[in-house]
């Protein structure tokens, strides 16, 4: 096999020799030339590094296409060394793949035209167009466009990042390198090659400073829209705040630590918290914490971050994981309205339930709330909260409203759980008695009596559980056990806002949208485990994953609102209740794509039209039936004299 360059005495070369000369070539994209340079090399195996190295690298020509595939235009030095290639057409068809054939005169005369025809490709457009158009109109998309216009992003970086977001929304972030193959048959903003190195460069752009600036600008755009819409105080936004964690596999992350993993794996984790608008699903911000940090200690930093971003006129909605006296005091000191699920383990809360369980269990003074086949009885209690004011350095009191809800199904479950626990206790105690009797019969030492766990000790202390010496077993005090089980059917929401019970009930239930976003993040976006090489790359990949999850949650909320008023034939149903299958279905819409010109080759079906209508998108770019419809009009065609 020949690996060196040499001269031919004439201008002829057979195909076997030509393939031998070009057996080892590779390409490299040049930003300045906006084309791919082609190089030949001699492979040499290095026994030390155990890798094949490229030796005698020589530039031999260029490929003028956006993908690195197409006909090679050889440079003068190569043609001087190998004049036989003047009469050959060499086309790169893939990595380490070329096709060589003899040129004819007509082909040689129309090289530019042939290259243009080769560039036209049959591509999928439905899903990428759908994602791109929605992203363009979203707050995140508008923020990225502003960062482009303000020179915080170059045009190439903007197109690359937008293409990566489209791929992450479609396929997830676990294997972002797969975008290299995705863009070959999908129409995306950046049609040139995106490989691992390109993604690493985008990671370096998405610094913590960039992400903070992104959220600040996003909040400015939101505030401007709200100002134009003249949103009143009564129309305040409700921001759901919640945290989760993800497994990480890298020794270079400072925040990676062992903690309470959501996946139950034994790998290090990183905790992070997100804030989203409950109504629109808009991501307002996020921050990361060490894997051993608990939820309670993260709320103060999160609400201060929202304030720094410029978020105004909102109330925070959190679950009981953030309930603490300190956190409530923080929110009173910064005059932040809140809706918090109360932990019932506090003694003052337990006493409150004991005083009111009688009325709540029978619905006295309560309103009945039916929601999703669930029945609750709710009642508001107007109370006060004492806290230390950091401005005046004095103790103050402010109104706090407790919304107590009673759910009979929760009470029944609490009763069933209690009975099962007592049954387990008696079973273990019976085993102990049998062991004692056996030891006595065998003249052996008696086993030690098992000690009660804290759970049972608490029940004994409160008189709910007692030892019945007559029957040698533990029994329940019927009256106290009944009251205890009824109390288990009570759950409480605390708020600074005086609303009716049903309003506050629905507000807290709507907090579930952040849980839905996390499900998209870990399942569809496939970000339950992130493999990165540095802290900066982790922040960038997390940011991309959250934007993709925000997109999916936003689309789901828009579809739900559309279906509330749409007639049956216009309602939208995700294919197999899956975004992935819906994107696959959209990819049945195909086109001929060349030089940013789209020529549709398939028809949009009714289910596709409904989806585009629900999202407010005009799919005219994908339509190939407009002209057909127009030609059927009565006043078009042959005009009679």
What does this entry look like structurally?
- With about 650 residues, this protein is of the alpha+beta class.
- It is about 40% helix and about 25% strand.
- It is built from 22 helices and 21 strands.
- The strands form 4 sheets. Strands 8, 9, 10, 11, 12, 13, 14, 15, 18 and 19 form a 10-stranded mixed beta sheet that branches. A 6-stranded antiparallel beta sheet has the order 1-2-3-4-5-6.
- The radius of gyration is 34 Å and the shape is elongated.
- Mean pLDDT is about 85; it is low at about 1-10, about 110-115 and about 625-635.
Q: Could you provide a short overview of the structure?
A:
With 641 residues, the protein is α+β, with helices and mostly antiparallel strands. 42% of the residues lie in helices and 23% in strands. The strands form 4 sheets. Strands 8, 9, 10, 11, 12, 13, 14, 15, 18 and 19 form a 10-stranded mixed β-sheet that branches. Strands 1-2-3-4-5-6 form a 6-stranded antiparallel β-sheet.
Keywords:
elongated, alpha+beta, six-stranded antiparallel sheet, 641 residues
User: What is the helical fraction, as a range of percent?
Assistant: 40-55%
Q: Gyration radius, to the nearest Å?
A: 34 Å
Biggest sheet architecture: 10 strands, mixed
Low-confidence stretches: 1-10, 111-117, 626-634
Distance N to C terminus: 77 Å
Helix and strand arrangement:
Elements: H1 15-21, E1 25-30, E2 35-46, E3 51-63, E4 70-74, H2 76-81, E5 88-94, E6 97-102, H3 105-109, H4 111-119, E7 121-124, H5 126-137, H6 139-149, H7 155-171, H8 179-185, H9 196-205, H10 208-229, E8 237-248, E9 269-277, E10 283-289, H11 299-309, E11 314-318, H12 325-333, E12 337-341, H13 347-362, E13 367-371, E14 374-389, E15 394-406, H14 408-441, H15 454-461, E16 465-468, E17 473-476, H16 478-487, E18 490-495, H17 501-510, H18 512-524, E19 529-530, H19 535-565, H20 579-586, E20 590-594, E21 597-600, H21 606-614, H22 626-630
Parallel strand pairs: 8-11, 8-19, 11-12
Antiparallel strand pairs: 1-2, 2-3, 3-4, 4-5, 5-6, 7-20, 8-9, 9-10, 12-18, 13-14, 14-15, 15-18, 16-17, 20-21
